[in-house]
Records
---
Amino acid sequence: MTDTWLSRFVADEEQFRTALWRTAPAVLRPAHPPVDVLPAAELDRLLDHGLLRAPYLGLVQRDTHLPDARFCPPRVVLGELVGGYADGRAVRALIRDEQATLLLRYVDQWHDGVRTLCRGLAAELGRQVEAFYFLTPPGTQGRPVHRDDADVFVVQLSGAKRWWVHGGPADGNWVPEREDGDPGEVLLDTVLRPGEVLYVPRGFAHRARAEEGAPSTHLSLTVREVASANLYTVAQSLLADSCELPGRPLDDAALTGAAARLLDHAAQLLAELTPADLLAVTRQVMLQPAA
């Protein structure tokens, strides 16, 4: 393995951290990109082994998510009818006949190699990292122009895909969704080829289209950053976890006493908790696997 996990994605780590991180989109050409972590042969095996299921698998057509029922026929298990499991033949037919894009969600939760890659990168960046896999038919666009609530490393695995990246949001009052307004000027217009990595900073609007001739496959690693809602949640948790109050005070005097204790405790805790501490704790909480 190379010296660091980040070096699997960038050629010059210092230049990336000082000039690109959270600042500008770029095409990166690392010496050892992780193109072998989920090869095409393994994708075929995953589709055919019968245990891959929604919502880990989905099919999209630009603005539309195809109903799961179209590629997840019901099956009988222990005498009961169950649904949600993908049928490889149906998935391939929709990709071939209706030009649907295959989307594998949260691959880090169920694929060992991708999980190792994400955990290694997360430890180095101090941020939560998740993974998504896309197979897009030639000449098609899987999603409209949109903004992601994460910095994104796009690793081109096979085929080629053209990307258009616009600027980031004007302020912090934005939401990660389809960009129906003017996304601004194009900052980067590039065709990504196998082994190359595209870096898209958090909130920068972008879209992509597979080049003609062959399907495009890529792995997107999303590097999640703290949002205001995360800060609120962790601050509330710190207050709740470190202050013991009776569950149901019996009268107004007891209620007033509980309120006073809570306010005193909050004042003491907040006096000792710096903004940097709260941010660090929140990032650490986000790094922990979900229970």
Note: The two ends are 30 Å apart (CA to CA).
---
Amino acid sequence: MITPMSAVLFDFSGTLFRIESTESWLRAVLDEAGLALGERELAEAARALEEAGALPGGASPGRIPDELAELWENRDRSAEQHRAAYTGLSRQVSLPDPALHDALYDRHRTPAAWSPYPDTSEVLRTLRERGIAVAVVSNIGWDLRPVFREHGLDTYVDAYVLSYEHGIQKPDPRLFAVACEALGADPGDVLMVGDNRHDDGGAAALGCAVHFVDHLPVEKRPDALRPVLDLVAAAPEQPVRNGQG
């Protein structure tokens, strides 16, 4: 028997929102500090930061330094570990002022650093109109609620389940269970939407259906969330999987 879903869980970064480019991130922090780099130097520094994976929500690190390996694996369990992991990666890159590494981390936590995907508002609004409960389930080390408020999307979210607030990170099914409980939903009636097959796919162990979208720049992904509306309206009994990662 096919039954509609009662709730949807969304990942944050790469699913509903996308972080700014590494160059925009670095430029904003340099401007705030009253520092200037030539365009070539700025581009080179941004490229080095991107290769290091220093921007949360950006490119994955090309290599994790041995001294950061354990911290990196557990970075989303607390605010302190998250900051230490990413500033540790940032410090692999030489910048004009050592204080810039913490400033870069602080910048990525601001609403100005994030943009919703073009269809995020439409999809969240439509789910609300249909009476479908929504939770955001994120591996993160800081409070993302201000990002949703700043972009006028908080009214469409019923619960936020953030890894650092629970000391649990995806793919641990317990984090998805917290979200289902917060929404009063049976996992079998819940759809998890994310961009990471490993982390977000952990919801399947709880019995949730799972749908994946691509982690692409905002301008290159105009409507990947819209299929969620059809999946929620008529979801199969087995977990939904999309081959895109």
Note: The chain has a mean pLDDT of 93.
---
Amino acid sequence: MTPLLDIKGLDIRAGDKPLVSDLSLSIRPGERIGLIGESGSGKSMTAMAATGLLPPSITVAGSITLDGQQVVGATDRVMNRLRGVAAAVVFQEPLTALDPLMKIGRQIAEPVRRRLERDGGKATKEAVQREVRDLIDKVALPQPDRIINSYPHEVSGGQRQRVAIAMALACRPKLLIADEPTTALDVTTQAEILKLLDQLVRETGMALLFISHDLPVVAQVVERVLVLKNGIAVEEGLVGSVFGKPQHNYTRTLVEAARLFDEALGATGS
């Protein structure tokens, strides 16, 4: 099966500083991959490179093929056609990704309208509103009328993240990139978002690239993981194998830290 995302020999640099070095990663349609490592390991840089979102000051070399299209060196026009269709991104803090001056209903409506026009459908007000309602139901947001007429700051962090997921789903992407989507949330809300993502990926057949430093979180939603350390891939394999019998010292350190953290939580009754 042809990979949906195929990264080969990726190098990302900021001036003379290497951020990601010789990274290769492929994701097939419907596959769920976890990209893990500490802050600064190059996880988000890789995701931004895959969607052409890196700033001009960052240089990229190597090959990134997204849905058959070469991303490295691609024009904005080409990338605008790919974003949302081939891949959509859910960022860590939706409050910074959402427009604070636009009501949530309008923000979800924009990608819905673009997708209807792209598919040759009629983007009538009624059709768009129907799709917006459907997306709100799909991500299990309560009180749809209130959500539609609220500004981002008027809803909770968990609800904002669900809105961001709804917007990502609006264009029906083939690949969903979730970049630390639960880090800023409390434990209960985090579990709800993970369950939602798992359900949506299963129902739609999307591929998933899930980026996180939290091993237990990653283990809940992906099948295979790639471990990054200082921008270099040090280990890759099935979740059970990598987390159960890690081969690299860095992965062992991550696994042990996650175990000790879980034990500490258990001891405090959290």
Note: Strands lie at 5-14, 17-27, 32-36, 58-66, 69-70, 87-90, 175-179, 207-212, 224-229, 232-238.
